Amino acid sequence: MAAVLLGYLAGSNEPLTVDEVKSNSRIMHSAEDAFIESIIIPAARRMAEGRAGAAIRPARYSDVLPSLGHYPLSLGKVYEIEAVEVAGQALGAGAYSLIDLGREQLIDAPGFVGATAKVTFKAGIPDLKDEPGVKAWLLLAAGWFYEQRELFVKGEAVQEMPRSFADGLLDSISQPTRF
Which tens digits make up the pLDDT trace of 10-53? Predict the structure, then answer.
């Protein structure tokens, strides 16, 4: 199953500011600041999260996992497991652990191998200073979205954002292939 967003954490903001996008994209006016803030920046973040398979803006998520024995979480950049339920019963925090392998995080609950469980967790990157490639990708994507803003207004088809070079900037948070 895929992780379900429960809500963004209090105090967590979008990873870019309007001023950063305008400076990087050489936008000299303020006529579209609200559009950049409410549409462009969230769209760039969501695209990065989708391509990388990892959360960027810190938030709470829920997922149903088919097993708890050294099992990979479906979303990257998990930093805290809040709760685990097996058959509707909450497990104590000592019954499981979060294993951080860098690009991938696992839940390990040795006594519950093969048990289906609902897991609630926090994921995201609290400070993009730790991930400069991700910030660079977000700025490139925001600039591309701004140049292609007709996509949001008219719904017309536009050229896709180039993937190969730019997506390499997301490697540090991208989930490994699991097939």
Answer: 999 999 999 999 999 898 988 889 999 998 999 999 989 988 99
pTM, entire model: 0.85
Strand partners, 161: none
pLDDT at 157: 52
**Beta bridge mates, 121:** 61, 81
Nearest to 74 by CA among 61, 59, 91, 56: 61
CA distance 94 to 115: 17
Distance CA 31, CA 25 (A): 14
- Distances in whole angstroms, Cα of residue 151 to Cα of each of 135, 136, 163: 23, 22, 18
| C-beta separation of 57 from 45 below 8 A | yes
d(CA 19, CA 139): 11
DSSP-based three-state secondary structure for 159: coil
